From TrEMBL, chain A:
Protein name: AP-3 complex subunit mu-1
InterPro entries: Adaptor_comp_med_subunit (IPR050431), AP2_Mu_C_sf (IPR036168), AP_mu_sigma_su (IPR022775), Clathrin_mu (IPR001392), Clathrin_mu_CS (IPR018240), Longin-like_dom_sf (IPR011012), MHD (IPR028565)
Coiled coil: none
Gene name in the database record: AP3M1
Domain of life assignment: Eukaryota
MF (Gene Ontology): small GTPase binding
Length: 419, 1088
């Protein structure tokens, strides 16, 4: 299946290679570089490239390309999903998935890659198992290791891999037993010029941080499970129980993981928490234009909307912008990407934040065809916009009383206002 | 000069490196060492020294640096002899790194690699399964042809290993050996055949992968394992699932007949299959119908469906393609929701999924139409995603949604991403051709775009308009004129060529303009693009034929220019046209037909999706993405005309079951699956690793799953209601524990028996959930259960010791299990059985369940409540009371006794319960209809109501033959409890955990005579169904109970204080009930 893996940074250096079968020369990456050149933008490099003898399947994550070499037919998603899992594991181990982190921990990276694939077929991809096999580096451990000469390789054998609950390691012990759930909902929306909603939908995830000793068997129930239209589960969840009772019943992995992701059924109207008043115009035959946007809360359910950021990809003819924000600060990158970012912060309904000013255009160039669309980010704490509520969490199988907590957050997902 | 200094610095750099390297030997600075790879000989020398050092830390450091070199792609093979010596190192990390090195370089140093083989051979015999597995892994990864026989031997041995993990590695090794030496194929197939029979979920994915790689054509190996694979699928790890699903898709296409021929009528039946088994029975009865799906075919579809909910995009896609390729068309619709979900994922996943959706949406628009808006484009999407979305939107366009779509397209056309804007214009063109209603609208829109500022947009519009006009040539003179004007400004060759072609084609409709255009073109001919030149020639020729008076000279001029053009195509064309149109003596017969040739009716181009031809590739494959056949792509065969013999899939044991109706099968499949996973669990918990905790976890999980499946089936079976679900838990439990072939008949019989006679045994058995034990005498069961539990442990130990090959293992297990169940059956007191089972389970579960033991309720005078007064009930009176017994209908229900009195002078017939209006979640088990009630007669019936631990009213209708009365039952809060027996110590412990929010308390003032122990007991027990906890202190009284529905503890404490006060404390998780209870108890206690 997966023959080799090359890690390539933005400037096109291959800084790590790993082969699971016989060695494939680095020169195979030339085909990739060719495609990258053609695509102009990193985002547009095709994930699947065919070369005379191999196929290259790549992902782009955190400014790195993970390029895998394939020789025979394989479902491309299989490889893509695996590569993302590799990147997730790096993220999990080193706190970031960057060239520097990987170079600093090259031995651990190599050990991980060795365990994750055998002959190109995934072997252990569960973070719990991997962490038993290879301990993540911490400052303390590296100090201890250098003194005592002990290693990062776990000397206990990974029992999880052998059990039928492969996602949980055995013998977990905590003094404080805690189970936290974050219900994070994102609003994806396209708002058209006139302010009406073209498309809106709520996507949510429940991320869990479970630090419970032993083998707890949890069941999480909702006040209104019917809201969830389409759900995807962590493998630990018992599907049948959900089908029949709409209760999430599972033996959790240890630590942080994504329990479910869901989509709220499209019948429900989505409450859009913010509105934007905008007036962007470019004058014909003149080297300037006007830019004026105001943001206000719409249906905020009594909660403050915070962390608002507006990002605008301005047309190429824009040379510079002279704006004054009533609140927050803005930056404009006039050289490369022509991106305007306005960091607004909180909305106070008494004084709505606005950003006004002039736009300098390249003289002589035709005025832009279309006004740029505004991408908005925001955050509302303590609110799940769909109204989803966790009813209760029960624990079976262990005696102690865990500390439980649920947090709700609503965020903007791909929230776009066309102007 | 400069080269000199360069060389110098290089040298000094190298020197430094050595120095530092030596330093590293003493101080060990692992992270610092990696920056220094200038890979000189000297440095390697240094590494060699380190490897040969006696200190592990130095070796480790050296190995780490070597790995760093390998990661960079540098050749470290010359260190091979030094490294290979360390293969037997005791230090596990050194060992692992040596393995990594060995696998990478053994191919280059075959002779030296042989030195390591004996180490692995030794490790293959290690008692620890993980060491055996890793030895096999490395041994098989060393690509040295000499050791092929050793590998073969090792694989064969490992395939018979007791540990499934080792067997999994054996499956991986098969592929490695096959790629090293394809000659071993036959032997390897034998191993694959053997491993395919494996029942472990760990092995399944890997062995199917080996099968796909080594012998994908040996479909015959799958037959016997087909059902097992289907049943195991959900429990296999996600990567294995993908491989198995792809393989089974191919299998299904060769073994079953096409389900696609069916008509609409059958579709309903198909859908109902999920809902009810009876329906299915009906279906099989209707076997005369032209198409009946093979039950195995159905099995595959049913068992893969839950995987659509996987978090792994590859699994979801694999299931989606399976449904697309093998399920009846009416059922494939369910995949769209999941595929649309994947669009939230990262760009690469989106790309692949959108490609597949594009292919699907061509054939079956309806599937994705409801999700139209999910394909709307965002300005931040990468271009490749945008174009794919656009493609899908275009495919989905129809009369109903076209206006919305066109509005959306308008936004896209203005996009700053011009490539995308151009694609949008093409999309509009396609919509215009496909939907005749909007052709004109589209055309007008496109014409507007002609005045766009961006040239690419205009050019694309011209090309599209050209195509559209070609389809309906009449009445578009205006547009053509407009386009002719554009020729002055537009520079994109394709667009210019298109305009010229259009004018030439319609030259008779625009007789005034055409010659003028030709004149202009003649002027600029030499500077035009080749493409445009060809079209100028064409235009000239056409005009020459229709309007030679005006254009003869011009055409000749152009032909002359063309004759000397640099491009041979143009010279060719010129010669050809000249011969054809200009009459001369040598011109043959053809020139007579010149007009017909040039101005013939030309078929309009079909605007088709580029994904049109992709559907012959299996979806989700690499070949589909690339639209070319990838190496190793296995064609999906067409459905066979006649299904091959289905009996090949029968496994011996299941053969017996051949006679069952498929209706029975749905149910039976579940226990058999449990069976497998259990045996696997037994297998995997082989050595010390499996502590009782993990055991209990998985057990309880299984139980709850079981409970679910019983719930499912209870919904299915219409004849049994309510009680059915419980009885089936019981039945399934028996079913599981009985031997395989007995299982079916037993459970079926059991079911029937149960239906016929609701003996006290079975009803008691029902109440035996995990946390409860029967209310009957605890002490009596104690001794028995203890012995029983010992038996269980013994038996477990036994299975652990008997690590026989799998099939034998299974039968052993079964027998033991069978005994286990039969023993309690043989016991004289059937009432003991539930508590026994509860105790058995208590053994597996943690002790927390042991704390909550339901005890006998304290006897209190019966308090009846009026349900229906005889005045309002037309002579029928109904009273109810709570008997405080565990409900026989379900462990979450409160039992209610209803007494019906007939106060009239005639018979009341058919008393039953009609419509129920229950709050959500509440459930009710009704009494059987009473045929008749004599005058003055009275009858008591029992019901069970699951109040969900709330005091909400259960309203329903009590009906007679003639009337219906609305009645309701509202439970006093005290009746929602079941008494619990626990020791004072347990009580205190539980109370300690239920503090804070979970505690409510109040002060009571009353006369001292009210605070004597008997009075308090009486008063509290009258109000609430609680159990007394023996107390060591005189002034504290404790009572314990649990809520019926959720089983949460409810702890009541009455603490007598000085004077005539007392404190009442209630600790419970169910704070609402707790406070209600407090409110009810307070007045009762303070009353005189």
């Amino acid at each position: 299946m997966i023959h080799s893996l090359f890690l390539i940074n933005c400037s096109g250096d291959i800084f790590l290679e790993k082969h699971w079968k016989s060695v494939v020369s680095q020169s195979v990456c030339d085909y990739f570089f060719e495609a990258q050149e053609k695509a102009a933008d990193v985002e547009n490099v095709p994930p699947v490239i065919s070369t005379p003898h191999h196929y290259l399947i790549s992902i782009y994550r955190d400014k790195l390309f993970f390029v895998s070499v394939i020789q025979t037919e394989v479902p491309p998603l299989f490889v893509i999903e695996f590569l993302h899992r590799v990147a997730d594991t790096f993220q999990d181990y080193f706190g970031e998935c960057s060239e520097a982190a990987i170079k600093d921990n090259v031995v651990i990276v190599y050990e991980l890659l060795e365990e994750m694939l055998d002959n190109g077929f995934p072997l252990a991809t569960e973070s719990n198992i991997l962490k038993e096999l290879i301990k993540p580096p911490t400052i303390l451990r590296s100090v201890v290791n250098s003194i005592t000469g002990s290693s990062n390789v776990g000397d206990t054998l990974p029992t999880g891999q052998l059990s039928n609950i492969p996602w949980r390691r055995a013998g977990v012990k905590y003094t404080n037993n805690e189970a936290y759930f974050d219900v994070v909902e994102e609003i994806d929306a396209i708002i058209d010029k006139s302010g009406s909603t073209v498309f809106a939908e709520i996507q949510g995830v429940i991320d869990a941080c479970i630090k419970l000793s032993g083998m707890p068997d949890l069941s999480l129930s909702f006040m209104n499970p019917r809201l969830l239209d389409d759900v995807s589960f962590h493998p630990c969840i018992r599907f049948k129980r959900w089908e029949s009772e709409r209760v999430l019943s599972f033996i959790p992995p240890d630590g942080n993981f994504r329990l479910i992701s869901y989509r709220v059924s499209s019948q429900n109207l989505v409450a859009i928490p913010v509105y934007v008043k905008h007036c962007i115009s470019f004058k014909e035959n003149s080297a300037c234009g006007r830019f004026d946007i105001t943001i206000g809360p719409k249906q905020n359910m009594g909660k403050t909307i915070e962390g608002i950021t507006v990002t605008v990809h301005m047309p190429k003819v824009v040379l510079n912008m002279n704006l004054t924000p009533t609140q927050g600060s803005y930056t404009f990158d006039p050289v490369t990407k022509k991106v305007l970012t306005w960091d607004v912060g909180k909305i106070t309904p008494q004084k709505l934040p606005s950003l006004k000013g002039l736009v300098n255009l390249q003289s002589g160039a035709p005025k832009p065809e279309e006004n740029p669309s505004l991408n908005i980010q925001f955050k509302i704490q303590q609110l799940a916009i769909s109204g989803l509520k966790v009813n209760r969490l029960d624990m079976y199988g262990e005696k102690y009383k865990p500390f439980k907590g649920v947090k709700y957050v609503t965020k903007a997902g791909k929230f776009q206002v066309r102007t | 000069m400069s080269s000199n200094s360069f060389a110098y610095s290089e040298q000094s750099g190298g020197g430094e490196a050595t120095e530092l390297g030596q330093e590293a030997t003493s101080t060990i600075s692992p992270s610092g060492a990696f920056g220094l790879f200038s890979s000189d000989l000297k440095k390697n020398e240094d590494l060699k020294q380190m490897l040969e050092s006696s200190k592990d830390s130095a070796k480790l450091d050296a190995m780490k640096r070597i790995v760093g070199m390998m990661a960079k792609g540098k050749n470290a093979s010359e260190l091979f002899p030094a490294v290979v010596k360390n293969v037997a190192s005791k230090n596990i990390e050194i060992k692992k790194l040596v393995y990594v090195y060995l696998v990478r370089h053994a191919e280059e140093q075959q002779d030296l690699a042989l030195l390591s083989i004996s180490t692995f051979q030794r490790a293959l015999k290690d008692p620890n399964q993980l060491i055996r597995a890793s030895a096999l892994r490395v041994l098989s990864s060393i690509r040295v042809p000499i050791i092929v026989p050793i590998m073969m031997l090792a694989i064969k041995e490992a395939a018979a290993d007791l540990s499934p993990y080792v067997r999994k590695n054996a499956a991986h090794a098969i592929q490695k050996l096959y790629s090293l030496d394809p000659e071993q194929k036959e032997m390897l197939i034998e191993v694959i055949e053997k491993l395919l029979k494996d029942k472990s979920t760990l092995v399944a994915g890997s062995v199917v992968m080996a099968f796909e790689e080594v012998c994908p054509d040996r479909i015959d190996l799958i037959h016997k394992n087909y059902r097992k694979l289907c049943n195991l699928l959900v429990d296999v790890e996600e990567w294995g699932q993908v491989v198995i699903i792809h393989m089974l898709t191919r299998y299904a296409r060769t073994q079953f007949v096409s389900p696609w021929t069916e008509d609409e009528g059958l579709e309903n039946n198909e859908k109902n299959f999920y809902e009810s088994d009876d329906e299915e029975k009906e279906k099989t009865d209707k076997r005369k119908k032209p198409y009946v799906m093979d039950p195995d075919h159905r099995l595959l579809i049913r068992n893969t469906k839950p995987l659509l909910q996987s978090r792994n995009a590859a699994v979801v896609m694999a299931v989606a393609q399976l449904f697309w390729h093998i399920s009846p068309k009416s059922e494939a619709g369910i995949i769209s929701k999941s595929l649309v979900r994947l669009l939230r994922s990262n760009r690469e996943v989106q790309y692949i999924v959108l490609q597949n959706i594009a292919t699907m949406s061509i054939q079956r628009k309806g599937m994705f139409e409801p999700y139209l808006k999910s394909f709307y484009v965002r300005s931040t999407d990468p271009t490749m995603i945008k174009t794919l979305k656009l493609e899908i939107l275009t495919n989905l366009a129809n009369e109903a949604n076209i206006s919305t779509l066109l509005r959306e397209f308008q936004t896209y056309v203005k996009s700053q991403d011009k490539q995308f804007a151009a694609a949008t214009i093409q999309a509009i063109g396609r919509c215009a051709t496909n939907i005749s209603e909007v052709t004109d609208t589209c055309l007008n829109g496109l014409v507007c775009l002609l005045s766009n500022r961006d040239e690419i947009v205009v050019a694309e519009s011209v090309v599209v308009i050209k195509k559209l006009l070609q389809m309906q040539p009449a009445q578009h003179g205006e547009i053509i004129k407009h386009m002719a004007k554009l020729l002055d400004s537009i520079t994109v060759p394709v667009a210019r060529a298109s305009i010229l072609w259009l004018i030439g084609e319609n030259c008779e409709r625009v007789p005034k303009i055409a010659p003028d255009v030709l004149r202009k073109m003649a002027k600029s001919f030499t500077s035009e693009d080749d493409l445009v030149k060809l079209q100028i020639l064409n235009l000239g020729a056409k005009l020459y034929l229709t309007n030679s008076r005006q254009t003869k000279l011009l055409t000749q001029y152009i032909l002359n220019l063309g004759k000397y053009d640099q491009n041979y195509d143009i010279r060719d064309r010129t010669r050809f046209i000249r011969q054809l149109i200009v009459p001369n003596e040598r011109s043959g017969a053809l020139s007579k037909y010149a007009k017909k040739i040039f101005l013939a009716q030309k078929p309009a181009p079909l605007l088709e999706s580029p994904f049109k031809d992709r559907d012959h590739f299996q979806l989700g494959t690499l070949s589909h993405t690339l639209n070319t056949k990838a190496t190793g792509y296995l064609e999906l065969s067409n459905w066979p005309e006649v299904a091959p013999d289905p009996s090949v899939r029968n496994v011996e044991v299941i053969e017996l079951a051949k006679e069952w109706t498929p209706a029975g099968k749905t149910k039976k499949e579940t226990p058999s699956k449990k069976f497998y996973s259990e045996s696997e669990e037994e297998g995997s918990s082989s050595d010390s690793n499996s502590d009782s905790e993990s055991e209990s976890g998985s057990k309880s999980g299984e139980q709850s799953e079981e409970g679910n499946s019983s719930d499912d089936s209870s919904e299915d079976s219409s004849s049994e209601s309510g009680s059915g679900s419980e009885s089936e838990v019981e039945n399934q439990r028996t079913a599981k524990k009985n031997s395989k072939n007995k299982r079916k008949s037993d459970s079926e019989d059991g079911e029937k028996e149960h239906e016929k006679s609701k003996t006290s045994e079975s009803s008691n058995a029902e109440s035996s959930s995990v946390e409860e034990s029967s209310s009957d005498s605890e002490t009596e069961s104690e001794s028995d259960s203890a012995s029983e539990s010992r038996k269980v442990t013994k038996e477990k130990e036994k299975t652990r010791q008997d690590r026989n090959p799998v099939p034998k293992d299974v039968s052993l297990l079964d027998l033991d299990d069978f005994n286990l169940v039969s023993t309690p059956v043989a016991l004289p007191m059937p009432a003991l059985r539930p508590s026994l089972i509860a105790d058995l389970e208590g053994l597996n579960l943690s002790a927390s369940s042991a704390v909550i033991n339901v005890s006998t309720p304290v006897f209190v005078p019966m308090k009846t409540h009026v349900m229906l007064h005889r005045m309002s009930g037309k002579g029928l009176a109904a009273h109810y009371y709570f008997p405080r017994q565990p409900c026989i209908f379900g462990d979450k229900m409160v039992s209610v006794q209803v007494t019906l009195n007939n106060t009239t002078d005639r018979k009341i017939e058919n008393i039953h319960i009609g419509e129920k209006k229950l709050p959500t979640g509440m459930q009710m088990h009704v009494f059987n209809p009473i045929e008749s009630l004599e005058p003055e007669g009275s009858i008591t019936v029992s019901m069970g109501i699951d109040f969900c631990d709330s005091t909400q009213t259960a309203s329903f209708q009590l009906c007679t033959k003639d009337d219906c009365f609305n009645v309701s039952i509202q439970p006093p809060v005290g009746e929602l409890l079941l008494p619990v027996a626990m020791s004072e110590k347990d009580f205190k412990k539980e109370q300690g955990m239920l503090t804070g929010m979970n505690e409510t308390s109040t002060i009571i003032i009353a006369a001292p005579q009210n605070f004597t122990p008997p009075v308090i007991l009486q008063k509290i027990v009258n109000v609430a169904n609680v159990g007394v906890v023996p107390s060591g202190q005189d002034n504290i009284h404790r009572f314990a109970a649990k809520t019926v529905h959720s089983g949460s503890l409810m702890l009541v404490t009455v603490e007598l204080k000085e004077g005539s006060t007392a404190q009442l404390i209630i600790n419970t998780e169910k704070t609402v009930i707790g406070s209600v209870l407090l409110r009810e108890l307070k007045p009762v206690l303070s009353q005189g």
